[in-house]
């Protein structure tokens, strides 16, 4: 984490790297990091699991990496078994070194420009990320502007670990979820969570096979709204508020085992506010099109507390 900068408040300390604009560590009250962290110098493959990174510009999976926009077919590079574009392929935002444009004790502004055609996508895209610590919350604001219509669906990808991961209990405000096929691509169906492993209307442990989008809304909201609450050991609690209509929940089944760290399968869970995956190929999903007249803006807030 030699390239990371540190943001602090009285209660929180965040280590953030320009490589992938990633949240490397987040400590509450001087305790251990609440997100999984591996030294990229010792474990260079760890970054391939997107820990703490901003992923996109089209996060999650796109079937075949292909979609049609205004009559033109676009092909994104496929990096998952050669048949799926995951997080915009092998050279997505998580692999880029962002430019620090402003830094203070509690705020970090990062910027990156993607030229027209980069990643198989149209439009010159200017993307900014602003991390801000205030008291016991970390807020991430992501904006994007483009000179041509282009899909934008950016997500933040930390793996949360509130003490022992086996103690995690998750509650999500989502009445529906997206069933997926064998390649983890949404089938197009929007299914009720009632009676399924995806029903987190009340706090419960995760099913080990969960890697699905929970549908919290049918459009991006103007202001952050509570999506989920994760509780852990010792009364630790994470509340996630976001403008995004979906929350990708991943139980961490395929995380690696890294010697000398607490990283292993199911050691942490990914909770990723975002638009619904593969929306470019499902017109009835919430729209993820960004245009010169309609720029992209996501606000996600992580609130940390401890029950007394």
Tell me about this structure.
This protein has a single domain (5-306), classed as Beta-galactosidase, Chain A, domain 5, CATH 2.70.98.10. The protein contains no helices and 25 strands. β2 (12-17) and β3 form a beta hairpin. The strands form seven sheets. Strands 9-10-11-12-25-21-20-16 form an eight-stranded antiparallel β-sheet, with no helix packed on it. The protein is an all-beta fold and 308 residues long. It has strands spanning 5-8, 12-17, 22-28, 53-55, 61-63, 66-69, 72-75, 84-86, 99-103, 107-114, 125-134, 137-146, 150-151, 155-157, 159-160, 169-172, 176-177, 191-192, 211-215, 225-231, 236-242, 246-250, 269-274, 289-290, 296-306.
The number of strands is: 25
Quaternary structure of the protein: single chain
Strands across the major sheet, in which order?
9-10-11-12-25-21-20-16
The structure class reads mainly beta
Radius of gyration: 18 Å
Discrete helix count: 0
- Secondary-structure arrangement, i.e. CATH architecture: Distorted Sandwich
* CATH fold-level name: Beta-galactosidase, Chain A, domain 5
Q: Could you tell me how far the N terminus lies from the C terminus, measured between alpha carbons in angstroms? A: 33 Å
The major pleated sheet works out as:
8 strands, antiparallel
Helix fraction, binned, reads under 10%
> How large a portion of the residues is in β-strands, by DSSP E?
35-45%
What are the secondary-structure elements, in order, as H or E? Answer: EEEEEEEEEEEEEEEEEEEEEEEEE
Shape: globular
For the record, the count of structural domains works out to: 1
Show unreliable segments. none
Mean pLDDT: 96
Which CATH class is shown? Answer: Mainly Beta
């Amino acid at each position: 984490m030699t390239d990371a900068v540190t943001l602090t408040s009285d209660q929180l300390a965040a280590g953030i790297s320009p490589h992938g604009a990633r949240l490397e560590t987040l400590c509450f009250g001087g305790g251990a990091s609440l997100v999984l962290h591996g030294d990229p110098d010792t474990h260079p493959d760890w970054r391939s699991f997107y820990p703490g990174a901003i992923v996109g510009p089209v996060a999650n999976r796109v079937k075949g990496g292909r979609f049609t926009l205004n009559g033109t077919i676009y092909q994104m590079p496929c990096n998952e078994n050669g048949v799926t574009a995951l997080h915009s392929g092998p050279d997505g935002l998580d692999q880029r070194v962002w430019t620090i444009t402003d830094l203070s004790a509690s705020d970090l502004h990062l910027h990156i420009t993607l030229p027209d055609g980069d990643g198989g996508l149209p439009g010159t895209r200017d993307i900014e990320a602003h991390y801000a610590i205030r008291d016991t919350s970390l807020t991430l604001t992501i904006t994007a502007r483009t000179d041509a219509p282009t899909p934008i669906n950016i997500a933040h990808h930390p793996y949360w670990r509130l003490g022992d991961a086996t103690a995690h209990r998750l509650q999500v405000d989502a009445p529906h979820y997206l069933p997926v096929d064998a390649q983890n691509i949404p089938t197009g169906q929007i299914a009720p969570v009632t009676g399924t492993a995806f029903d987190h209307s009340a706090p419960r442990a995760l099913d080990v096979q969960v890697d699905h989008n929970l549908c919290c809304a049918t459009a991006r909201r103007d202001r952050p709204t509570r999506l989920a609450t994760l509780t852990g050991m010792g009364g630790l609690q994470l509340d996630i508020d976001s403008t995004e209509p979906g929350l990708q929940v991943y139980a961490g089944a395929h995380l690696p085992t890294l010697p000398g760290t607490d990283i292993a399968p199911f050691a942490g869970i990914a909770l990723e506010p975002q638009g619904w995956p593969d929306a470019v190929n499902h017109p009835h999903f919430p729209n993820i099109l960004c245009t010169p007249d309609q720029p992209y803006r996501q606000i996600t807030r992580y609130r940390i507390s401890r029950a007394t």
